[in-house]
Amino acid sequence: MNRITQLFGIKYPIIQGGMIWCSGWELASAVSNAGGLGLIGAGSMYPEVLRDHIQKCKNATDKPFGVNIPLLYPDIDEHIKTIIDLGVKIVFTSAGSPKKFTPLLKSNGIKVVHVTSNLKFAKKSEESGVDAVVSEGFEAGGHNGREEITTMCLIPNVSNNINIPVIAAGGIGSGKSMLAAMSLGADGVQIGSRFVASVESSAHINFKSEVVKAKEGDTMLSLKQLTAVRLLNNDFYQQVKKAEDRGDSVKELQDLLGRGRSKKGMFEGDVIEGELEIGQVSSMIKEIIPVKKIIDEIILEFNSEKQRINSISF
Amino acid sequence: MNRITQLFGIKYPIIQGGMIWCSGWELASAVSNAGGLGLIGAGSMYPEVLRDHIQKCKNATDKPFGVNIPLLYPDIDEHIKTIIDLGVKIVFTSAGSPKKFTPLLKSNGIKVVHVTSNLKFAKKSEESGVDAVVSEGFEAGGHNGREEITTMCLIPNVSNNINIPVIAAGGIGSGKSMLAAMSLGADGVQIGSRFVASVESSAHINFKSEVVKAKEGDTMLSLKQLTAVRLLNNDFYQQVKKAEDRGDSVKELQDLLGRGRSKKGMFEGDVIEGELEIGQVSSMIKEIIPVKKIIDEIILEFNSEKQRINSISF
């Protein structure tokens, strides 16, 4: 047992990141059934879609699962209401102040975790009464901190300076990297990209295939003038890069991005014109496999690498 | 024993990064005397200065030490000649092709290590016959890869795909991060920033003090259009940022940088107008202490964290 398995009542301290367009009830329930904590990514769901996914997830697993909500979501009050109504027990919040909803969620018996990318906001999260934080490094996919602090530098700094459990995110997709994250002081890990390329993820097969094909250097933190996001190198990314290199204005970048780019790329499979959000760790993902196999492999490697490390002595 | 302690004949697999203006004979010999591998940073030395430092280092330690040479150094042939003449046994090369000098150095009985920031060049280094590679992540100080691959993602990818020993660099300055790097598959670690803020480093006291004051988010990879370099946030960095934000040309950036900026900042102590190169890990460095204390603390923490990790079981 450790602080994260205890907090959530799960077998392994592996959280599946709640990602837009990729993590519906099928992925979340598969992760929970395999011993981790599955999260439904509510950021890309209309209120009625979220309701449907929560109900289906309940039917698909009797294990704990949660919902991730970006606090900037337009219908945020509706989402919060749905979560409370349907008796969801775990909520991960991101992209906003944890002060706003934490008291309400906690008073409904919900465990709350906030996602941050630096120590400053990890401390603010702790002050606001959350049960744990996710500390997400620069190498992570999706939206990301501007200070570009990597997992290697972020996790020891956060875990040395707050008292609640720390879940490391960014660059983690294997037993080795889970062991590294826990060596740095994390109590558990949040894994996103590896689960995008799982059988159960709702990512379009074209996007999953691009993740498997990705090589080192194929993702780049982009659109820092809007909201920084790590993108997979495709035609759309090249358009963004050109626009940034020639010094386009915020307005011009917003126009280029337009609406629905991420749905187009990640959910509808237009891997040329769509926005593909993925982490640096994608360069090490070589096949699309079921969630249970992913988690079993991670735990197997974690244990064997732990033994290898234990045999080193100076 | 492991592959790195064996290769160099040292006690701990801790290499002190050969840094311009900061790592002369005093730092290198102190590191070697404390059980690591000290490197003289030849990149900021005139040929006669390097000769002097090598001789002084020999007098100060009977342990193995080495020299780091950036291959773009103008008087590179002179430096190579000095190294061979004076019987230096270990050379770390960086910033250039390892093919050019590796055969000559090897034929003189010198162990050669090349510094790279991605798998592609780690493989090329292996093919060129080097004895080991340093794989340096995005969070490292000084000059740095453009692909922005972090230590967390770089080390497993390199160590899974080459056969020679891998030394991890970038974000490492404590026993925890050393343990993490070795969990990721590294055989040893190269530490730069932590040794800048040591008693024995030749960095100006003003620069050392700025390193100790640095907080998270205070360094940023900059000047990507010239040679990417991680800079500490000071007045000069702000000038660079403004120039980059307004889309200045390569020529304008070169003019802004001018000549001797790094000497001015790191060696002469002008922390306003000088260029201060340091890693992200600087936010966790809290005091200027002797090298021996730094290394002893790292090994103590490595061993205690290894025990903690070993007690985790699923």
Structure description:
- The structure is a homodimer of 314-residue chains.
- Chain A is of the alpha/beta class and 314 residues long.
- Chain A has a domain at 3-202: TIM Barrel (Alpha-Beta Barrel), CATH 3.20.20.
- The first copy, chain A, is 42% helix and 15% strand.
- In chain A, the strands form two sheets. An eight-stranded parallel beta sheet of chain A has the order 1-9-8-6-5-4-3-2.
- In chain A, helix 8 (175-183) links the parallel strand 8 and strand 9.
- In chain A, helix 3 runs parallel beside helix 4 (76-85), helix 8 packs across helix 14 and helix 11 packs antiparallel against helix 12.
- Chains A and B meet through helix 7, helix 8 and helix 14 of A and helix 7, helix 8 and helix 14 of B.
